[in-house]
Amino acid sequence: MTRINLTVDGQRVADDVEPRMLLVQYLREKLGKTGTVVGCDTSNCGACTVHLDGRSVKSCNVLAVQADGGEVTTIEGLAGEDGQLHPVQEAFRECHGLQCGYCTPGMIMQTVDLLAENPSPSEEAIRLGLEGNLCRCTGYHNIVRAVQHAAGTTGAAEGASA
Amino acid sequence: MIPAAFEYVAPASVEEALAALAEHGDDAKIIAGGQSLLPVLRMRLNAPEWVIDLGRIASLRGVRDGGDHLAIGAMTTHHDVGQDPMVHEHALLISKAITHLADAQVRHRGTFGGALAHADPAGDLGAPALALDATFVVQGPGGTREIPAADFFVDLFETAISDDEILTEVRVPKYDGWGAAYEKFVRIAHQWPIVAVAATVRLEGDTIAEARIGLTNMGSTPVRARATEQMLAGQPATEEGVAAAAALAADGTTPPSDLNGDADYRRHLATVLTRRAVLAAAGRG
Amino acid sequence: MTATQEPTARAEIGRDRRRKEDQRLITGRTRWTDNITLPGMLHLAMVRSPFPHARITGIETEAAKQSPNVVAVLTGADLGEAQGACINAWPVVPDQVTPAHVPMPSDRVAFAGETVAVVVARSAAEARDAAELVEVDYEELPAALELKESAEAHANGGALAHPDLGTNVSAVWRFDSAEAGTGGDVEAAIAEARENGIVIEREYRQQRLIPAFMEPRSTVVDPTGEQITVWSATQVPHILRFAMAATTGVPESKIRVIAPDVGGGFGGKLQQTPEEMITFAVARRLGKPVKYTETRSESLLAAHHGRDQWQRLTLAATKDGHVTGLKVDLLADLGAYVAIVGGGVPVLGAFMFNAIYKFPAYQFQTTNVLTNKTWTDAYRGAGRPEATFAIERLMDELAAELGKDPLEVREMNWIKHEEFPFTTVAGLEYDSGNYEAATARAKEMFGYDALRAEQAERRSRGDKVQLGIGVSTFTEMCGLAPSRVLGSLNYGAGGWEHAEVRMLATGKVEVVTGASAHGQGHETAFSQIVADRLGVPFEDIEVLHGDTQISHKGLDTYGSRSLVVGGEALVRAADKVIEKARPIAAHLLEASVDDLEFSAGRFAVKGTDQGMAITEIATAVFAAHNLPDGLEPSIDSEATFDPVNFNYPHGTHLCAVEVDTETGQVRLRSYACCDDIGNVINPLIVAGQVHGGLVQGIAQALWEEAVYDDNGTLVTGSFVDYLLPTAADTISFDLDHTTSPATTNSLGTKGVGEAGTIASTPAVVNAVVDALRPYGVHDVAMPCTPERVWRAINSGGSGGETTEAAAPHFDESEGAAQ
Ligand SMILES: Cc1cc2nc3c(=O)[nH]c(=O)nc-3n(C[C@H](O)[C@H](O)[C@H](O)COP(=O)(O)OP(=O)(O)OC[C@H]3O[C@@H](n4cnc5c(N)ncnc54)[C@H](O)[C@@H]3O)c2cc1C
Ligand code: FES
Ligand code: FES
């Protein structure tokens, strides 16, 4: 067992963990942060994306011990304390950027990172910026709209009248 | 999904890391960004007893100006190398290759040294490192040694780093004013390349004065397209000038046959991509 | 319509409501099955066969049992009859050959990935550790792997998937229009065309696909209460409960199945799985809650696959291009077992090959074949994408033969809008449609003529990048299904759906549906329907589903049935609420029933300003202080609806691709489609369904393929090799609708869940082939990989087979240290 200390969604936590424990397991199993999910075992799907020290990472591909001392933000820590949604969360709802919602935490976390790096991305930059996140439901069309909407670079969902 | 159990140590210096490596020998595995190692462990294709984490060794991170070369610390992430203005200025080919490497999340964790040490023939950094004649600095119990790129890649997933050594730094000579392009051919975006071509050229007027070309996934290691390079020197930077030389790109290569393409198709791709990469590097793409 | 209000600006139906379910999903407040933990819960790990066909000669579990925190290691022999069985609900012919499907066999495995032992431990990691220690001895048996060879094995001594059955042929199912009296003799039509017309003969491959829903399957079973509670990532909680009870002897009333949040299905979770049955059996045996969550690799390996057919097709036409006959001969790979509706999937296609065209003669035959590969079953579209692909490819081939525009040839042959209702050569009655209108609109959106001009220009210039334009004018049958029709096809269940509307005392409304959502937005769409019908606010409606104790009756979600069947049940239940409330309203308003009008949620006394809201009536009924004599104190209602017909959405899809003739790379350039799905409840949700469907269909055309090697190993066993497209591989789509309301349900809706998938595959392949016609190419096998396209250009044919080896990016041939 190895002792780790980290800050997760603004809260300081400390635990003894097996070195083999993945960050995503730590979040889900130890901290009950089940908003972050697992979709694959080869780190291709991006469903587990969280921010570690301010950058998006696939939490299935980081050991919890590697994150020792770090700061983690998950989908559950994105909204304000008063429940105010993050603009990217709001945009995914507004643009119908999700169906089953399984890829959504990862998509949203990656989008936040993408927009931090490039606040007004082209459609191509959005599509490339999300290449590490798979969605089986939406065909990506409305996910792209949602990112554009959040960036304020256009983007109304197909089928929306407003 | 869950690796087999292992012990973990995160040394604070290269010396401590080397000591740990010496102590645990064959039972230990180095982890850098973990982006290749962790999937291997999770699928239990390997189960080391010890994992030695280089992540806490600050000296291994960052890009330094070494005068006639850039020194890229082994633990510098793909993202940081890709964003580095010095790399863009002096080793444009590397910047170009990194924009195509994996995805944003993987680039935030994966490291320059880790990718090269992993030596996947489909890895995107081997061909640029080879084309640029980079030097690999490794440290072991006997001190430091420098391995030229031409000797570094030994075979599939095998390099000249020995079991008791650590890759600390990659030195890339400066190629100021050289144009560069990385043509990566994939079926879907987040794939490893089926074939990729790393090309960098120096123009004199409209003529290609020098060209350096590395091929990705055209054999068990990255390879240079020497015949093409030689023929290009002195050619006009035009479609016609480049085409004949590019047609030689696959000569002598032994690409794999797999789900994504048979060897003959890969050889063909290498010639097309080489032409495109050279023209793009010459600003004619 | 009995709700008599005129549609007003505030009507919910047709409105682009943002989804109710999203608030939870975008904040991570989700309840996926794998999120559930219970005190003392144990974890399972499966030991799976690496061989496609082998006798199990010994299982050594001792080392695993000694591993830390292991509670039990169980084999098929240990669990015995308690495991129950995996059922086949649709024996397509009376003498179907159906191998017994034991969840965990004890004697013989029939595909690589089949479970042979299960380890139970206190943590998932420890269960996995111990699973690695289970030693299984196998005696390998010859494996039936190649579909065409397997179909002949009984005749030539080839490998049998199940040796004791004596054949791999599970069923031969046939429809012939001459025999059925729905059309002429197809052989005569073909003979005539050989003499005086055109005969197009083709063989197409429907490659094997993997549904690849994003949430891996997971099951939690808690046996500690009076009822055994099963949470499972399933599309079919009701069917699962039935099957568990029917095959284990546990009374149905003692099993509660809950499908909590479910992360996609696409048919892939329409199954009663061995893993669910094993988890159920282990929990009962140990008396403790247990959980099994598969890894993605396990999911790709062992969750059912889809498609996998060979299609031999003969189309007969007159010299001027009028179709005269169609003959379809399929070989369908069922894999190792006949899945719950596995054998029925090709049969679902039987009625759709003739599509929107007026074929005078038609014959369909499918030979369903067992092999030693993962079993196959429904995947988005189930049978209909295969049919649509075949006919839409053939219509393009006919156009090429005639030298005509593919849309012109289609128009010559399709059913004109004034000919509806139209009874097809397959015996179905299409109620409504307008192919002319959808096509005209799609052409306009697409800029058809300009793209054709660009294509001609690129061709004449000899551009290395060629432009291809693909057409698909599809229809499908959906809204499964009229129970009588299912009965006539020998299906084991009905096709009705159930709904209930509960009027709560506080003015809120609970809607219970037997359809079980997993991303389709039922909560939102159903709320819109009820809001309009009952005149209560959208926000005040709560939709409950996916729990057999709450929604006690239902047939779940598949076949684009939720809205057209489930929605209609809901309309009827809501109408019953109004009718039950009416006498109470009259009583309370001291008016005659005949003087009441119901509109916008209120009963009003005609010609007065007196009235009462239905929610107020609900409160009064709850108090029950003042009700008419003899009336029960409830206005809650339920309804079960059995559709009288399928419904038939259709649309015209146009796709432009750019083909790099030097590398064979295909790039999507633009895609426009105009679908007619009848009346639309929520355009936002509809568009989402179409987008997602399009990409799944496009992915079949360009990227996805489940590949096995000669050893029967699934080579595309992870997302590294099974290529799902990303955002960077796809484009934005151009969508529109024409509307011919369905006449067989009161909302006038048609199914939309599968339309995009069904239509897009042939549109894309037609575009690729269209680009390459000048090179003499008339087919490229799916997926149209760059290599295949390149080979088709350079050496003819359709591009060859995929090499059965994966590149080992995460493999390490070196030792422990580098
Ligand atoms: C989804 C996904 C997609 C990817 N796509 C691509 C792609 O398209 N192109 C591409 O090039 N790569 C790709 N990668 C791999 C990625 O580039 C990895 O980051 C890289 O291969 C390994 O770097 P790492 O720092 O993560 O090394 P690790 O995974 O930590 O280590 C890799 C190997 O190198 C050894 N090692 C690491 N550092 C040292 C050192 N300093 N000295 C000695 N030995 C060392 C380790 O022991 C291990 O054997 C992908 C990875 C993932 C997960
Ligand atoms: S679960 Fe982490 S990338 Fe798929
Ligand atoms: S919304 Fe279902 S996977 Fe993206």
Report on the structure:
The complex is a heterotrimer of chains A (162), B (285) and C (818). With 162 residues, chain A is α+β, with helices and mostly antiparallel strands. Chain A is built from five helices and five strands; from the N terminus they run ββαβββαααα. Chain A is 30% helix and 15% strand. Chain A has a five-stranded mixed beta sheet, sandwiched between helices. In chain A, a hairpin with a 2-residue loop joins strand 3 and strand 4. In chain A, helix 2 crosses helix 5 (141-151). The N and C termini of chain A lie far apart (54 Å). The mean pLDDT of chain A is 94. Chain B is an alpha+beta fold. Chain B has helices at residues 14-24, 37-42, 78-83, 85-90, 92-99, 104-109, 112-118, 126-131, 149-152, 226-232, 239-246, 263-281; strands at residues 7-9, 28-31, 50-53, 63-65, 69-73, 135-140, 143-148, 153-155, 158-159, 166-173, 179-185, 195-204, 207-216, 223-224. In chain B, strand 6 (135-140) and strand 7 (143-148) form a beta hairpin. The N and C termini of chain B lie far apart (43 Å). The model of chain B has no long low-confidence stretch (mean pLDDT 96). Among the domains of chain C are: 33-142 and 211-302, Alpha-Beta Complex (Aldehyde Oxidoreductase, domain 3); 431-479 and 645-795, Aldehyde oxidase/xanthine dehydrogenase, molybdopterin binding domain (Aldehyde Oxidoreductase, domain 4); 496-641, Aldehyde oxidase/xanthine dehydrogenase, molybdopterin binding domain (Aldehyde Oxidoreductase, domain 4, 2-Layer Sandwich). Helix content of chain C is 30%, strand content 22%. The model of chain C is unreliable at 1-9 and 813-818 (pLDDT under 50). At the A-C interface, helix 2, helix 3, helix 4 and helix 5 of A face helix 1 and helix 20 of C. Residues 38-40, 43-48, 58, 60 of chain A line the site of one FE2/S2 (inorganic) cluster.
